[in-house]
Each structure stands twice: as structure tokens, then as C-alpha cells.
Specification:
The complex is a heterodimer. Chain A folds into two domains: 1-65, no CATH class; 130-229, no CATH class. Chain A is 79% helix and 2% strand. Chain A has helices at residues 5-21, 29-65, 68-85, 96-129, 133-138, 143-163, 180-228, and strands at 169-170, 176-177. Chain A has a two-stranded antiparallel sheet. In chain A, strand 1 (169-170) and strand 2 (176-177) form a beta hairpin. Chain A is extended and about 70 Å long. The mean pLDDT of chain A is 87. Chain B is mainly alpha-helical. Among the domains of chain B are: 1-43, no CATH class; 68-86 and 95-110, no CATH class; 154-459, no CATH class; 610-818, 3-Layer(aba) Sandwich (Rossmann fold). Chain B contains 35 helices and eight strands. In chain B, strands 5-4-3-6-7-8 form a six-stranded parallel β-sheet, sandwiched between helices. The longest helix of chain B is centred in the last third of the chain and has 41 residues, at 814-854. The chains are: A mainly alpha, B mainly alpha. At the A-B interface, helix 2, helix 4 and helix 7 of A face helix 25, helix 27, helix 30, helix 32 and helix 33 of B.
């Protein structure tokens, strides 16, 4: 009598699915066991990935089998690794600042440049292009649709930004209120924000529902497999 | 009502404005306070105003008043004398001055630097003074009227302290004698015997008036003095010396006297011979045995040049029974140890005739005894102390000739009367200070006026009193002695360690307050305590009605600011667990039912969203055998949704283009999920089609790694997941940069991951199509990038997969299997959200209606 891997995987998947579903009755040891197992397996897997896919191919190979240039380039991150290891000593922890400064500085530069070039400027241009009828026509977008989409996007952008304007002045009765126009625009902006959050929630629900369907489908498939077995 | 304050000293009541007490003239205000009125201090530069101090006359001490009266009399007499002697000028005396009586004394003090009493003791030659009569008058002026002396003496007798009364040294307790007393006693013996003839008057006074108050030792002194007067001087004519037992001189002097007979007188030191000369010429006429040139040098004819008192002395010296030693210096305790007498005092007389044999035996020891018996303070005070300290030098001085006395100190020269026969220096007691009888015509009362009070009291010794032994019980407690006596007492014992006398006699420990634990804290002055209760002051705030109104308004404002505002809180959902179980049951049942249904309920979506259409176009536009880079960045928990959305895209792409797929992941689990995706959904379609792919594995560094990979992919990821060279494989043939890929496909469930890939590959990917396959939860965030045409197409969630499956030529896919359940679940969710909204609306309308009814 042999057990196919699908059967073993199906049993394990069924058990851990039930353990996770046990969270319906609250936090319990079964749920914790499943969580701890996932965390432990994930940590072990990440460590193995770091060794086999980072240290050995990107540091060990160049140092042992690479050319002189590759060794030199590999020695720089090795030196940075040694500097970061100095954090273990209170007296030598300052040495690690050089490596950390390099990482933070380079990361900040890359992130800022990517955000400006890849998100800020293109999104500003896209918001403006909503009213570009030629561009809309090139994308098979009609006039009304383009104007309507552009108007909604423009209104949603302005009203949503106005909603977050919290400047107010004291009134005669002593209350602090924003100007009436701002109040109205902010109220409309709150609608846009609500719709956006509703869309996000719908997407989250759709993703969760799909995950649930996949799990239940797997259970059904397991039972079908167990029934066939 | 005028306030009255009490004097802190006498306790008498005085007006509050008084600075000083009317009764005792003590200051009524604290000493630290400033003086006021006429008593205000003189400031620098201010000329003092002349004041009439006659009103202060009653408060002066009696002795000062007497001195002032005498000074006035003296001034009048001097004025008369000045009028008789026009050429002689006298300084004007200011009778109104408070210290006028002391001025004449100070003038005398300028002339005579050495006190008379000290000169008489030490033998130092005082400077020449005025005539005897004049000096005596001046001294009487200084010390008071003669008539006042008897009164003072009587008062002094009445006020004799008990310590003096109990002070009775005896021969049996010679070791307990006070050295000061002994010293004065010896000095008393050295007083000329001619005083003895006149002392009966004094003795009578003392014996009758103050016999009970006189100390015993003074009584004994008087008794022995009387005995001396009654007993003829026992002078040994053969030896020209007094009996040894009558001599108080030290043994070493006796030795010297024994070694210096008449024929060996030339070996005697000059200073000693000077002493002999003085003794023989001035003090006693009985010392005529050894006829010497110095003695013969004394010319009685010069008697006319001597002062009157000295003439009297000379006359009295002719009497063999009279002793020239001052009475108070007369050694009254002749039977006491000789070691107690300072040798430099006794050496003036009675020492020469001592037997030589006895002196030879006791000379060294006697010298030591004399030094031992001499107090240290007296050694320092007496210049003759060098005699005892340097006997060898003195022996050497014996061999020197008589003219060697010129090298001797001045004080020694005073004894050499032969070379310097100054009449004033023939005797150390030439000046009639405190211990010498005054000029003729003056009573014995005048004698004691020149003595210190304490010594005058000591002279009040009854002749008939018998010595009383001092016992320990009679010993005077040190605390009872006046401070000045304690200061004068010689200290034989070393000072004890810091005793209580140095600290304070107050042993009270403070138990409260900031000074708790300290000892000897000065108590509060009783006189400065408040005399009346403090005036009560009302602490009630005096406010007007307007101020009260303002304060009330302020309180209202503060109360409004600090008043808690009730926050409208939502009531907790009762039975939330039941509701949770209900929702789970509903969804679970619906999903299971939908999955178990054999026939589909809902049709697949017909319409194609624009973003999905873009993805379809990209999938169909990929050239054949083109290299497609697939970035896998989703979590394992989203496998069901992501695989359902990505499988139709890859199915169509592989179906149409047969691309070379290269997987890379920025997530640690992405590489294994890519393997699962290839071996799972894709394998079902292309199990036998020779589908090949390359997995580059994990790309570390986050955004930095993506940016670096976009710039140089073959350098950043040179190896595949199996550590083989990736860029030499068939999947990456002809590809060395990101822009050389046919398309870039990103599979992610996170909007941030999609944004990073979009941003960091913006400049590197060029015009290659970029399709994002994402989860439904991240689609709203990625949609703007599609609208900005940064993303060519997007497949989001199960809905996107279902749309994509509509273009796969009707091949079944995963989306179809999930679509009924998904559709029912979405309908259920919609109905629950709508039903919940309506329920909430109904509750709101009910609450509003109830609130309206309540109003």
C-alpha cells in the first residue's frame, strides 16, 4: 500500500485548513499551532533561500571562481557585511554606520527618483490627459466618456484633497468650523473617498472570497480524492 | 497709650522710644540695630559735636569718679603751682572729659614703661620719676581720694569672694599651693621691715573690720609678720649670716654664699656683689660683717640727695631689728620649702651667709629644685631665669674681673651700685608703687590704694588668725573663680583635649527645628519676645460686585472648557459571535453549494474591461519564441486567486506565441510559487508541449535590487535557481538587458510591489509591453498606472481571469470552476451589505422618530 504525494499533501492541507478555520471560535491552540508551523517553515525557507540564492551565488562564487574584478566587486559587499557584524560589539558598533549610511543613502536616492519619475509626474500627466480628446480617441474613448471620466477624476481629486483641509476659524457662537464652501466640497470629497474605500473593500472581499473558494474547492477535491481512494 | 518695653538686663520697664534703660543704662534695642537720635554713630567725615557728659557722672564706676575728682584737685593744685612758676607749663586737663583721671596716669605711663610693681619684683631699674611728693599726689589722683580708700576697702572686704576667703595654704600642703600665691607671698617677705612698724594700723583694720573675710593664708602672713616684728633678727655675727632655716634663698645661692667668704669676695660675680651691695647699703644695716669697698662706697652723706621716702628707708635700715624686705615680699612661710621661692628674688638678701658645707652638698639639686619650683610663666617673665638655665656661664663669670660687669645686661647692672651709684637704682624698691610705703604723713590706707584690689584684699590678714589647713573639700571649684584669675593661674598640666569648656557649658541638645541635634545653641532672648498678641488681619478678599461678576463669568468660561462632552458611541453589536457564525455559515454554505452544483449557475462575464483587453492584446502581440520576463511577487495565501487570474493569460500567451518564460522574484517565496504555478495550472495545459522556462530565483535588495536588475540584469542575476549560468541558457538567448525582453509580466498581490516595479523599470524597459496580473484587492491601486499608460494591461482577480478565459477558445479554466461560487458569494455580500445598510437606516429612522416623539 502506497500513499501518493497528492494524498499526503491533501491530508496536510485539509488538517491545516481546519486548524486555521478554528479561529472562528476565537484564538485557540489549534490556530496557534498552525500559525507557528507556518512561521517556522517560512523562516527556515527564507534562511535557505538567503544562503543558496544570495550568499553562495552572489558572494561565494565571485570570490572563489570569479575574475579579479568580480572578486573586487564581491569584496566590497563582504566588507559591508563585516562592518554590519560590528554592531554586535558596543565599542565597534560605530563602524557599521558606514555601511548603513551607504544603504540608507542609496535606497533613499533610488526611491525618490523612482517615485518622481515613475509615479508623480506620470500621474499628473494622466490626470491632465483625461481631457485630451485626441488621446482618448486614439484609445477608442468617446467624447462624452472622456469628458465624464475626466470630470469625475478631476472632481474626485479636488474634493478628496479639500476634505483633508482642516483649517477653521472661530464662529460667533464659539464653535470652530470650516468655511461653508469648504464644508460642502469636503462633504462631496467624503463621498469620493467612501467610494474608493468601498471599491478597495470590494476587492479585498473578492480576494478573500476567492481564497475561501479555493480552499473549499481543495477540500472538496481532497474528499473526492479520498473517496476515490 | 505708650508702649513699654522691659530691659533685658534689669527687667525694669522703660518707654519704647528709649534707646537705653533708665535704670541700668543697658541697651534696650537689639545690638544689631542702629543707634538712633543722639546716640547715632558718627559717620566718616562728620565732625563730632561736643557733648556735656556731666549727666553721665552718676553712672561712672566709683573708682573712676574718684579718679576724676582727684584729677580735678590735682589740676587745681598744678594750676596754683603753675601760677607760682610761670616758666613751667602744664598740659591743660579737661575736667569734662570722662577719662580725665586716666590721662595723668597715661602720662606717667609714657615715662615709665615698666609697671612699678613689676619693677619692684624684677629689680629692673625704672626710669627716673618726678619728686616723690608729686608722684604720690598724682597716684592718689589716679586711684581716688584718700578718703575714699577706706570706704573702698570696707566695701572690698564685704565683697571678698569666697574663693579668697577659703584660700589658706599651709606648710603641710605645700605641694598644693598655688604658685602665684607663693610667689606673692615671697614677694611680701621681701618688703622692707620698716613697713612692719607701720603695719599695725593696717593689721588693726584688717583684724577688726574684715578678719572674717580675709583669706587664711593672708591671715597667716599677717601673723608671721607680727611674729617677725616681735622676734629680734637672729643674726649670726660670726658668720655674718642669718640662720639657714630663716633663709628662703635657694641652695645654690647658699652654696655661692658659702664659697664666698670675706676674703674670697672678689670671686663673687659682679651681679651678686651688686646684690650684696644693695642689700647691705640700702636694705639692712646689719649686713656690715664683710667690709668691702662697695659697701664703704655707700656714702651716707648722700642721703640728702635721696628722696624723702628713701631717706626714711635709710633711717629705718639703721635699725637692726627692721627688715628692709617689703612686707608683702617677706617670706611668711619661712618654714616652707626654699625651692618655692624664686632664686632671683631671694638672691637679693639672706643668701650670702649660708654655710658653705651645706651649699656644696645641695647645690646641684637645689638648682634643679629652684627650676622645678619656678613656674614656666614666671621663668619667662623674670630675666633672672638665665641664672638658673646657665650655671656654667655664671661660674665662668666668677673668674672675670669686676669691671666685666659692663658686659652684663642692663638689668644686671642695676645690682652693681658701686660702679653706677645712681640714687634711684640703689634699691629695686625705690619707686613706691603698690608694695612700698608712701611718703610720710600718709596713712596705711593710702598704701593699699596703690595695690590692686585683689592684693589689697589679700593683705587683709588678721595677725591672730591661725593657719587653717586646706583640705580637698575646701578646694575651690575652678568654675567659681573669676575669669581673669583663671587666666592668670599658671597651668602646670598640659591642656586637655578639647574639653567641654571650649565648646559650651550648655549641654542642651536641640530636638526640634532646623538646628535639631546641635548643642549649645543660643536660646532666644527672653526680653525680645513679643509683648502682645499679633494683630489679627482678615484674610477675606475685599471685592466689589463688578469683580464678583467678572469672576463668575470667568468660572463659567472655565467650566465650559473643562466640562466633559459626551461622545456619541455606537452600541456594541450584541451577539457578534453569533453574527460571525451566521455570516460564516451563510458564505460557507453558499460556496460549498455552488461548488457542489453539477451545472453552472451563472454565466461567464461577457464584457471585456479595457485593462483586461490590453492584457489580451499583449498576450497576442508577443512574438513567437519571444523572451518574456515574469516577476512573481505574491504571497502563498493568494495562490488561489492569483493562479486563477494568471493561468488564462499564460494559457493564451503560450497558446499563441510559445514564449520563453524567465521567472524572477523579489519575494523569498516567489521562486517556489513560480515553480508551483508552472508545475500546476500551466502543466495541465502544456504537459506535453515542450514548454520551457528559466527561474532566476530570488532577487534581493528590494527596490535597489529591482533598480539594479533593470539596469544590468545579467550582472545582478547571473545564475538561475539551480546556480547555473542563466544568461547562457536558451530561455535568455539574445537577451542582455531588460528592454530586450518581448514583454514584462508582473504577478503580484500587492500594490506597493506593482508600484516599485513600475517606477524602477520606467526608464529601463523602454517600449516593451508591461502586463500586471494582480489580486482584486490591489487592482484599485494599480488602475491609475493603466490609465496613465504605464501599464499595458492588467488582469485583476478572478473576474479578470474569467474574462480572459472567454478568449481562450472555450477551454475550461480554473475561473470557471470558481465563478458560480464567486458570484454567489458576491451576491451574498452585496445582499448583506445592502441588508445591513437598510437595517441601520431603519434603526436610525426609529431613533429619530422616538426622539421626535420625546420632544
Amino acid at each position: 500500500m502506497t500513499f501518493s504525494p497528492d494524498l499526503i499533501i491533501g491530508v496536510i492541507s485539509f488538517i491545516f485548513t481546519i486548524l486555521i478555520f478554528s479561529y472562528l471560535i476565537g484564538d485557540n491552540p489549534l490556530f496557534r499551532i498552525a500559525v507557528y508551523l507556518f512561521v517556522g517553515v517560512s523562516a527556515g525557507y527564507v534562511a535557505a533561500i538567503a544562503v543558496w540564492q544570495v550568499l553562495i551565488p552572489r558572494l561565494g562564487y565571485p570570490l572563489w571562481f570569479g575574475s579579479l574584478n568580480e572578486k573586487i566587486f564581491a569584496a566590497v559587499p563582504l566588507l559591508g557585511v563585516l562592518f554590519i557584524f560590528m554592531k554586535a560589539s558596543s565599542r565597534l558598533s560605530g563602524v557599521a554606520r558606514m555601511t548603513m549610511a551607504f544603504l540608507v543613502g542609496a535606497g533613499a536616492a533610488v526611491i525618490l527618483a523612482g517615485a518622481v519619475i515613475g509615479t508623480l509626474i506620470p500621474q499628473v500627466e494622466a490626470t491632465i490627459n483625461f481631457f485630451d480628446l485626441n488621446a482618448a480617441a486614439s484609445r477608442n474613448i468617446g467624447f462624452m466618456e472622456a469628458i465624464g471620466n475626466g470630470s469625475i477624476v478631476l472632481a474626485g481629486t479636488i474634493f478628496s484633497l479639500v476634505y483633508f483641509h482642516f483649517g477653521a476659524s472661530p464662529k460667533a457662537d464659539g464653535s470652530m468650523r470650516r468655511p461653508k464652501v469648504i464644508e460642502i466640497i469636503a462633504w462631496v470629497g467624503r463621498i469620493f473617498i467612501g467610494i474608493t474605500l468601498g471599491a478597495i473593500f470590494a476587492g479585498v472581499y473578492a480576494a478573500a472570497l476567492t481564497a475561501l473558494i479555493e480552499r473549499i474547492s481543495s477540500l472538496i477535491n481532497f474528499f473526492k480524492l479520498f473517496g476515490n481512494f | 497709650m505708650a508702649e513699654i518695653i522691659k530691659c533685658p538686663v534689669c527687667g525694669e520697664s522703660n518707654p519704647a522710644n528709649q534707646e537705653f534703660c533708665q535704670h541700668c543704662q543697658s541697651r534696650l534695642q537689639p545690638g544689631s540695630g542702629p543707634l538712633k537720635g543722639v546716640d547715632a554713630p558718627i559717620k566718616p567725615g562728620q565732625i563730632p559735636t561736643k557733648k556735656n557728659t556731666a549727666e553721665l557722672e552718676p553712672i561712672l564706676p566709683q573708682w573712676l569718679r574718684d579718679a576724676r575728682d582727684s584729677a580735678r584737685n590735682t589740676e587745681q593744685q598744678e594750676g596754683q603751682q603753675a601760677s607760682q612758676k610761670p616758666g613751667q607749663t602744664q598740659p591743660a586737663s579737661h575736667t569734662e572729659d570722662l577719662l580725665a583721671g586716666l590721662r595723668s596716669q597715661a602720662a606717667d605711663g609714657d615715662e615709665d614703661e615698666t609697671p612699678d610693681w613689676l619693677a619692684s619684683i624684677t629689680g629692673a631699674a625704672p626710669k627716673p620719676k618726678k619728686s616723690t611728693s608729686e608722684s604720690s599726689e598724682v597716684r592718689w589722683v589716679e586711684l581716688g581720694d584718700k578718703a575714699d580708700f577706706a570706704q573702698e576697702e570696707t566695701a572690698g572686704d564685704a565683697e571678698t569672694p569666697s574663693w579668697l576667703a577659703s584660700l589658706t595654704p599651709t606648710g603641710s600642703q605645700a605641694d598644693e599651693k598655688d604658685e602665684l600665691t607663693e610667689w606673692f607671698r615671697d614677694a611680701d617677705d621681701s618688703k622692707p621691715t620698716e613697713k612692719a612698724a607701720e603695719t599695725p594700723a593696717v593689721d588693726d583694720i584688717f583684724s577688726t573690720s574684715a578678719a572674717d573675710d580675709t583669706p587664711d593664708w593672708l591671715r597667716r602672713m599677717a601673723a608671721e609678720d607680727d611674729a617677725k616684728k616681735a622676734q629680734p633678727p637672729s643674726f649670726d655675727s660670726s658668720s655674718n649670716a642669718f640662720p639657714p632655716e630663716a633663709s628662703e634663698s635657694p641652695d645654690w645661692l647658699r652654696q655661692i654664699a658659702a664659697d664666698s667668704p670675706a676674703d674670697e669676695l672678689k670671686d663673687t660675680p659682679d651681679w651678686l656683689r651688686g646684690m650684696e651691695d644693695k642689700n647691705q647699703s640700702t636694705d639692712s644695716a646689719a649686713f656690715t660683717g664683710p667690709a668691702s669697698s662697695e659697701v664703704e662706697a655707700f656714702d651716707p652723706s648722700s642721703k640728702d640727695e635721696l628722696p624723702a621716702w628713701l631717706n626714711d628707708q635709710g633711717e629705718s635700715a639703721a635699725k637692726p631689728l627692721q627688715d628692709t624686705t617689703p612686707k608683702w615680699l617677706k617670706k611668711e612661710a619661712e618654714d616652707s620649702g626654699t625651692g618655692e621661692l624664686p632664686a632671683w628674688l631671694s638672691g637679693n638678701e639672706e643668701t650670702i651667709p649660708l654655710p658653705a658645707a651645706q651649699e656644696e652638698e645641695n647645690l646641684p639639686a637645689k638648682d634643679e629644685d629652684a627650676l622645678a619650683g619656678l613656674p614656666d610663666w614666671l621663668k619667662a617673665a623674670a630675666p633672672q631665669a638665665s641664672i638658673f638655665e646657665q650655671p656654667e656661664e655664671k661660674t665662668a663669670a666668677e673668674a672675670e674681673p669686676a669691671d666685666a660687669s659692663f658686659d652684663s645686661p642692663d638689668w644686671l647692672n642695676t645690682f652693681t651700685t658701686a660702679e653706677t651709684p645712681a640714687p634711684e637704682k640703689e634699691t629695686p624698691f625705690e619707686v613706691p608703687p603698690a608694695f612700698v610705703e608712701e611718703a610720710k604723713g600718709e596713712t596705711t590706707d593710702e598704701l593699699f590704694t596703690e595695690m590692686p584690689d585683689w592684693l589689697s584684699n589679700a593683705m587683709d590678714l588678721p595677725a591672730s588668725s591661725s593657719p587653717t589647713p586646706i583640705t580637698n573639700t575646701d578646694a575651690i571649684a575652678p568654675g567659681e573663680l573669676p575669669s581673669w584669675v583663671q587666666a592668670m593661674r599658671p597651668v602646670d598640666e598640659p591642656l586637655p583635649s578639647l574639653s567641654s569648656s571650649f565648646v559650651s557649658s550648655d549641654q542642651t541638645l536641640e530636638s526640634r527645628g532646623a538646628l535639631a541635634g546641635l548643642q549649645g545653641v543660643l536660646p532666644a532672648v527672653p526680653g525680645y519676645s513679643p509683648t502682645s498678641k499679633p494683630k489679627p488681619y482678615s484674610i477675606r478678599l475685599q471685592t466689589s460686585d463688578e469683580q464678583l461678576a467678572h469672576a463668575e463669568l470667568l468660572e463659567q468660561i472655565l467650566a465650559a472648557e473643562t466640562a466633559p462632552v459626551p461622545i456619541a458611541s455606537f452600541s456594541t453589536l450584541r451577539g457578534s459571535r453569533g453574527l460571525r457564525w451566521f455570516l460564516f455559515f451563510m458564505v460557507f454554505v453558499v460556496v460549498i453549494a455552488a461548488l457542489l452544483l453539477p451545472a453552472p449557475i451563472f454565466s461567464m462575464p461577457v464584457g471585456v474591461p479595457r485593462e483586461v483587453g490590453g492584457a489580451v492584446d499583449v498576450a497576442r502581440a508577443i512574438p513567437a519564441d519571444g523572451a518574456v520576463l515574469v516577476a512573481v511577487d505574491y504571497e502563498a495565501s493568494r495562490v488561489g486567486e492569483i493562479e486563477a487570474a494568471a493561468a488564462p493569460f499564460f494559457d493564451q500567451m503560450i497558446f499563441y506565441s510559445h514564449p520563453r518564460l524567465t521567472f524572477i522574484s523579489t519575494n523569498e517565496t516567489g521562486a517556489i510559487l513560480a515553480e508551483r504555478f508552472v508545475s500546476g495550472p500551466l502543466a495541465e495545459h502544456y504537459k506535453n508541449s515542450g514548454f520551457s522556462y528559466l527561474n532566476l530565483g530570488y532577487l534581493p535588495g528590494g527596490q535597489l535590487g529591482i533598480h539594479a536588475f533593470a539596469q544590468n540584469p545579467h550582472i545582478i542575476s547571473p545564475l538561475d535557481m539551480s546556480l547555473q549560468p542563466a544568461w547562457a541558457s536558451a530561455s535568455l538567448e539574445g537577451v542582455s538587458s531588460l528592454s530586450q525582453f518581448a514583454a514584462l509580466v508582473l504577478i503580484t498581490d500587492n500594490a506597493e510591489s506593482a508600484r516599485v516595479w513600475i517606477e524602477q523599470t520606467e526608464s529601463a524597459r523602454g517600449n516593451i509591453p508591461f502586463v500586471v496580473i494582480t489580486s482584486a484587492q490591489a487592482a484599485p491601486m494599480i488602475q491609475p498606472y493603466y490609465d496613465s499608460q504605464q501599464v499595458s494591461g492588467m488582469v485583476a482577480g478572478l473576474y479578470g481571469g474569467a474574462v480572459f478565459e472567454q478568449n481562450n477558445a472555450g477551454r475550461p479554466g480554473t475561473a470557471r470552476n470558481y465563478w458560480d461560487a464567486y458570484s454567489l458569494g458576491m451576491l451574498l455580500a452585496m445582499s448583506l451589505v445592502l441588508g445591513g445598510g437598510l437595517w441601520n437606516l431603519a434603526l436610525g429612522l426609529r431613533d429619530r422618530a422616538s426622539a421626535r416623539e420625546a420632544k
